[in-house]
Design a protein that fits this description.
This protein is an alpha+beta fold. The protein contains 7 helices and 12 strands. A 4-stranded antiparallel beta sheet has the order 6-7-8-9, with helices on one face. Strands 1-2-5 form a 3-stranded antiparallel beta sheet, with no helix packed on it. A 3-stranded antiparallel beta sheet has the order 10-11-12, covered by helices on one side. Helix 3 runs antiparallel to helix 7. The longest helix is centred in the middle third of the chain and has 9 residues. It is extended and about 55 Å long. The chain starts with a strand and ends with a helix.
């Protein structure tokens, strides 16, 4: 069903019901609205676009029981805890945002959660282990986190150098691109490779704003995820 926004008439929202439950309306992209009005997009296609996690198969509840072991850089590592909380520190740039919190062994870390990942978590279509890999993979030095980085075809990997830039004192990657020149990439990736694993965010996530993994997922999701 399509509805207009009363305060802003030019905005249209797509909404639907599943199993008798009203889903939170999603603001439509103008191109999608035009395509739907021309019958170039169907309702099932809109569902896939605006409520993708509603259509995905759910994973087992067993996958949400902690602790869980995942493959680490040198053998298995243990996810002791994983949950969602709302940042309450007004001095932080991410104040008010929902974040994933994970405890891996003794290391504690958190990261702002994307809407897609929040929906995947609360709709039970991704496991905590998968979300740890996606959101904390580089901090944990997981192989999968670095597989996405690829040199352009034809560039010799022996031309990659890591060094500290004297100008800003940051670690950077230098790549000899041959006739294509050279490329420099600052950063966090290199620091995480060279420094021991540390919890970059010391929040425990165990406060009144935390959304428990066994709490009211439907209510929490409707409050902030889809929209």
């Amino acid at each position: 069903m399509l509805t207009k926004a009363k305060p802003i008439p030019e905005e249209w929202y797509f909404t639907a019901k599943m199993d008798g439950v009203q889903l939170k309306p999603q603001r439509m992209d103008a191109a999608d609205l035009a395509a739907y009005q021309k019958k170039e997009l169907t309702v099932p296609q809109l569902m896939e676009r605006y409520y993708p996690t509603k259509l995905m198969p759910k994973v087992s509840e067993e996958a949400f029981r902690m602790p869980k072991s995942i493959a680490g850089p040198e053998g298995s590592i243990t996810v002791e805890k994983f949950n969602v909380y709302k940042e309450k520190d007004e001095q932080r740039a991410d104040f008010g945002k929902y974040k994933f919190y994970a405890q891996i062994g003794e290391a504690k870390m958190s990261a702002v959660a994307s809407r897609q990942d929040l929906n995947a978590y609360f709709d039970r279509v991704m496991t905590p282990a998968q979300l740890v890999e996606r959101n904390f993979g580089e901090r944990l030095h997981l192989k999968s986190a670095y597989e996405k980085y690829r040199l352009p075809e034809g560039v010799d990997q022996n031309g990659v150098r890591v060094a500290k830039d004297r100008g800003d004192n940051k670690w950077k990657v230098s790549v000899d691109m041959g006739e294509k020149g050279s490329h420099h990439q600052a950063g966090d990736l290199i620091r995480r490779r060279l420094l021991p694993l540390q919890g970059e965010d010391r929040h425990t996530g165990a406060d009144s704003s935390e959304v428990s993994q066994h709490g009211n997922q439907r209510a929490a999701r409707c409050e902030y995820c889809e929209g």
